[in-house]
Amino acid sequence: MSITHRDQTTAAAGVQPLDRASLRAAFGVFATGVTVVTSRAEDGRASGITVNSLTSVSLTPPLLLWCVGHEARSAALYRPDVPFVVNVLASDQRRLAELFALANGQDYERTVDFKYNTDGVPVLRSCAAEYHCRVTSCHPGGDHTIVVGRVHAVVRHDRAPLIFHAGRFRALAQPAGT
């Protein structure tokens, strides 16, 4: 086990100072699910961003959070009362993760087969799960904004999730006989 702190105790113990690359690699040890958060842009077009920072916050009230980088094209969309959907990607949806990770402002409605919820928010088809939400608050968090949303509806599908670990997309291994 190694613990990295920026103090004299660990410096004397031979622990290297914290830098961006080593922090990113250390964060990559923690496997996460892969999601696409969808919403509507101010011009009404479908918008989405690949996110792996999803965290449950509370069951009562039902809250979740995720983070969006300040440089993301869609960062300004997320403010209180804006509806959004967290689409938990299934193991065969890597292409969608890669598509929505690009910050190219493309017209997603021409390339992605969406359905729409009652708020008019685009929802990806065939995901592992969907969380239909509204932003309750946004908080500064370094080079990201922490978006807290209240969950109003969930849809679970019987599909294995897409996983991100050590800089790569992965799928859960299925035990023999399942």
Main traits of this protein?
mainly beta; 7-stranded antiparallel sheet; Pnp Oxidase, Chain A; 12 strands; 178 residues; globular; disordered N terminus
Write up what this structure looks like.
The protein has 178 residues and is mostly beta strands. It has one domain: Electron Transport, Fmn-binding Protein, Chain A (Pnp Oxidase, Chain A), CATH 2.30.110.10. 14% of the residues lie in helices and 40% in strands. A 7-stranded antiparallel beta sheet has the order 3-2-6-9-10-5-4. The protein starts with 7 loop residues before the first helix and ends in a 7-residue tail after the last strand.
Q: What's a concise summary of this model?
A:
With 178 residues, the chain is mainly beta. Helices cover 14% and strands 40% of the residues. It has a single domain (22-164), classed as Electron Transport, Fmn-binding Protein, Chain A (Pnp Oxidase, Chain A), CATH 2.30.110.10.
Distance between the termini: 34 Å
Task: Please report which band the strand proportion falls in: under 5%, 5-15%, 15-25%, 25-35%, 35-45% or over 45%.
Answer: 35-45%
Helix/strand class? mainly beta
How would you spell out the order of helices and strands? HHEEEEEEHHEEEEEE
Number of domains: 1
Q: What is the CATH topology descriptor?
A: Pnp Oxidase, Chain A
What's the CATH superfamily, by name?
Electron Transport, Fmn-binding Protein, Chain A
